[in-house]
Amino acid sequence: MNFNKIILALVALAGLQTIQAQKDTENILKEVIVKGFKTVNGVGHMTDSKDGIIYAGKKNEIILVDSLDANKAINNTRQILGRIPGLNIVETESSGFTANGIATRGLNPSQSIEMNTRQNGYNISADTYGYNESYYIPPMEAVSRIEMVRGAASLQFGSQFGGLVNYVTKDVPKNKPFEFITSQTIGSYGLYNSFNSVGGNYKKISYYGFLQYRNMEGYRPNSQQSQVSGFGKIQYNHSDKLNFGIEYSLLRNKIKMPGGLTDSLFYANPKISTRARNWLKSPWNIIAAYANYTPSENSLLSVKSTFLFSSRSLVWRNEDGGAAATDDIDPITNAFVPREVGIEKMNNSTTEIRFSQNYSLGNQKSTFAGGFRQSSAWFKRQGGGEGTTNSDFNLSISGDWGYDLEFTTTNLAPFVENIFKVSKNFTVTPGFRFEYLRSTAKGHKEVEGDIQITDEVRNRTFALAGLGLELKPAKNTSIYANISQAYRPIDYSQLEPFGVSSKIDPNLKDSKGFNSDLGYRGTIRNYLNFDIGGFYMAYNKRIGVTLATDPISGDYYSVRKNIANSVHQGIESYIEFNILKYFNSQSNFGLSIFNSFAYVNAKYTTGEFKGKRVEAAAETINRVGLIFSTSKLSTTFQVNSVGDAYGDASNAMSSEDPVAGYIPAYTVLDWSASYKLQNFAIRLGANNLTDKSYFTRRTDEYPGPGIIPAVGRSFYLGFTAKFQ
């Protein structure tokens, strides 16, 4: 049995629509069950529709996590998601979370703010519109597959320019009353990770859950972190037509943050820490209930409701003086200066109802999919409180908060799409989404010694439309094209007062634009998997701060308004070629090479920085991997090359502003391997083999300010056992 067969078998066990196995597996598996995607190895794409959601004509990828050699114990994103062309990844352990964000096509990757981030189909970010930052994602050892839809996800999932990323957790083991899996991993910088899961079936009830504990001393001093994450799911299978269940996800972490660096400090020693008293704590809770009803083989009705109640607490010596400021004991008081305390509390509830129907139109089968989303969010932000002079995690303050703000968001959104099958090989998929959005901001903020009051209410409605085309010249290849409108609403931070002589433009608008794709993808037998295409994205009415003149007094003041448009265009290419399968389809060994490449030309087209590159947008992202596999052994060597970028829109090479400055290009090498024997497996590997010093992020505040270094060379060793 070779690596390809192992993957196909894993997919089959995952319980997924029937496709015929390749010739070399026919004597083992007559059919492989796949529910909605096609793949040669670990990366593939969705079929035209799946679970009531339409993917025809859209650029999408799916990654089977179990098929990858990667350091899953620390969610090493570049190994797990790096095959997605053009994926910009925040690589640092010291912002409090080992997976700190992703973006596509030159967008801002911090905390995945430009993405619609989901787990099992429901949102897991703090507030999709007002505070779309993702502090929780499930541990990769618990994830079965990752689904990604670029740009054109706006019609069925939301409005984000970056599209959708959906982490699908592992499901209940089929036809087993009980299964227990334990995985223990140790590694560099004090890493210890313990992952344990149980699952099974009892009559009409099925269950699955996991518990993960992770502790790290960290790459830099003052980087200690501990984390517990868990998940539980119970489902009642009433009949073949109806099932319903409930899920609960939790995260508990406590992290010490070493602070950011100036350029000179980073180049002198990237492991330096400028802060020893910075702490973060973030309890996260998500409850989801769902029901799926299939009245016939051509119809599906699904309902998902979620409630998120979480918070993020910080106590730190932060931005005063920037990254160059030292945090020393004052010789006069013989104590440290007081730290700043900030607490954010967030609640949101969301319900999505989806319905799909296959129907005959002429001689072809077409598909209708529509639904409705309702969400309400409440966000409480308190900060600027004077904390203690101690070094422990202590949220007590003296006096009042520097700012005390309360935000709400209400969203209603019906959406509809339809696959019109013009012929056996050609589909046309128009879609429409209507949005109602209401945002409020109330409270006060002390700015330069004065108390600024905010009482903002924003109501708006708008429509999004899209069109997808797909032509299948052969059974396993297709040409796809789509265009879809997108928008990014005004977020909470943009409604905050920010200066005594500053104003928020009363005509401040949401950022709007569109995404478009044209590509060719497919598989050739069992040795070639490819997806090559171009994209064009317009991102209009970006929000920023600029100077204006008072017409009466002639005085200057700053104003937050829509200041610029940007255009992002380029190519995205993924090719995977199994060399041994090409020469001998019956080979018991696999030797594959993959290349994930993107060229991104992202520039401002209007405003003060016209012609400048968009901040954080690397022009080239190239990842190449070599995979060797047998029936028991699999090993992957990966080269990650990311081009240079800039910290802000001015494209300054250096600046006293901690967020502005050059972000150099870098190349990082990773190697991972696994050996499986029946119900046991050993995993080992090395990340950043050459111990490259590099960084992907500059920040003005959390978790800096300044440069946040990436992790140097590290090793890991793990053991997994399955009992049933």
TrEMBL record:
Main location group: membrane
Compartments (UniProt record): Cell outer membrane
> Which GO BP terms sit in this record?
siderophore-iron import into cell
Which Pfam families does its entry note? Plug, TonB_dep_Rec_b-barrel
Record's keyword terms, sorted: Cell outer membrane, Membrane, TonB box, Transmembrane, Transmembrane beta strand, Transport
What are the annotated GO cellular component locations?
cell outer membrane
Q: How does it sit in the membrane?
A: Multi-pass membrane protein
Write down what this protein is called.
Fe(3+) dicitrate transport protein
Q: What is the lineage of its organism?
A: Bacteria, Pseudomonadati, Bacteroidota, Flavobacteriia, Flavobacteriales
